[in-house]
Amino acid sequence: MALARAIATVGGLTMVSRVLGFVRDILIAAVLGAGPIADAFFTAFRLPNLFRRLFAEGAFNAAFVPLFSRALTGSDGASSEARRAAARLFAEDALAVLLTALLVLLIVAELFMPLLVSGLAPGFLDAPATFERAVTLSRITFPYLVFMSLTALASGVLNGLGRFAAAAAAPVLLNVVLIAAMVGFADSAATGAEALAWGVALAGVLQFLWLARSLRQAGFALRLPRPRLTPAVRRMLRLMAPGAIGAGVMQINLVVGHLLASLIGAGAISWLYFADRLVQLPLGVVGVAVGIALLPLLSRQVRSGDQAAAADSQNRAIEMALLLTLPATAALLTIPGPMIAVLFERGAFAAADSRATTLAVMAYATGLPAFVVVKALAPGFFAREDTATPVKVAVAAMAANLLLALALMAPLGHVGIALATSLASWLNVALLGGLLMRRGHWRPDGRLLRRTVRMIVASAVMSVGLVLAAAALDGWLAAPAGVRPVLALALLVGLGGGLFAGLALACRATSLQELRRQLARPAKPATPATEDTPP
Description:
Blueprint: H1 3-32, H2 36-73, H3 80-111, H4 113-120, H5 128-141, H6 143-160, H7 165-169, H8 171-185, H9 189-217, H10 231-246, H11 249-264, H12 268-303, H13 307-334, H14 336-344, H15 351-365, H16 368-377, H17 379-382, H18 388-412, H19 414-438, H20 446-472, H21 474-477, H22 483-506, H23 512-520
Helix pairs in contact: 1-8, 1-12, 1-23, 2-3, 2-5, 2-6, 2-9, 2-10, 2-11, 2-12, 3-6, 4-5, 5-9, 6-9, 8-9, 10-18, 11-18, 11-19, 12-13, 12-15, 12-16, 13-15, 13-16, 13-20, 14-15, 15-19, 16-19, 18-19, 20-22
């Protein structure tokens, strides 16, 4: 599967999940609002997600996928059946060790949950009712980590096999279950939070069963042997140790923001959550898709010694990421207020909550291109089984994030926390890109640089169009909740997307011919691109 097709497959299914995620968050905002109960639930939801993204989808994925790809491709002349059997054996050994570690972590976490919650949200200690609710909800949600970590392993196997659709579709189940929980069981904010917590745990089970079925359909069902620290598993664990930080720097930065937001007061955690959810739409659709699709391809190219193809793959991945991210950034900076008001301002979510969330969206949006480009740069290290370098970069970025957040939260409150996260991500991009270039593994080619400039120009012109259109539609956007504001927002988004697409084609930031070619053809050995238009 071509890189562009893989990104489109993952991105398209992620888009479905994100749209359902917005429906979920609209319901959460209406029922829970942005007060203490919402803060408690978001803390309970973030806790297993932190471990999942750092150790399962982050460190584990970065270590497992290159080793699995190596076993699957081989280099010793073994038959395809023998290589497939070796890869399956490695995956089964990794599964046994991972499950054992997860069960131990689950037991420890359940026993010491008050300590974990106080570490993640120390501000709750001054609000005993919120603290107790957060502990109770966290004990319900934490088993989600176990099943989602097993899901991450299954996803890594499927991605290594070149099957991206099933893993990309799995998150849809989470949003469907949580929507059902809110619709069916949310009689009040308190019971709504409990229903959501149980929904999170159930969704983890369903996603794992979905991918287990997909593995069987792919002829790669995994057995559960007794845990063994084989040489391959030991190698994976050594790669995971630094990768836990290197692959999850953004998550760690967000957790730092969560911790500091708990010290600001009620509502701050919720404002940052809803702002992050809006920014997560382009980040999830583009950034996650790029990282998932790029790592197996880079691993194979590096393994075969084709460094030029690997560098070209990274340039094209960054190019595609920016093509979709830069206009999203411009829109989030230009019309965040109408977006937040139309999506969330109803029920318990008041106009003051919309204003506070809008400012946080703008702060996060300044870092959106960096959030996405990191997803394309980090695989350049992971594909070479180097997880030590990203951890050094991550430590520098995290230190910068903490210092900036502490400096900015006093004058800017929760907005300063969001801005610090964005600035730290740009530092992360600069350091990762600089190290890859210094080592000769990657360099932005002329085509990437030229097209990036054109994308920026197209995005800037689009922003002007959005400002004028928002002014013309102000009456509908400001109308009470109903059909008119939704239609006005949809019209704004459609207008902005159409305007950017036309400008991007006009200034040759991309071409329809090239997009069709990349999406339609399977991958061929890549050669560095030097022209703006395809042959």
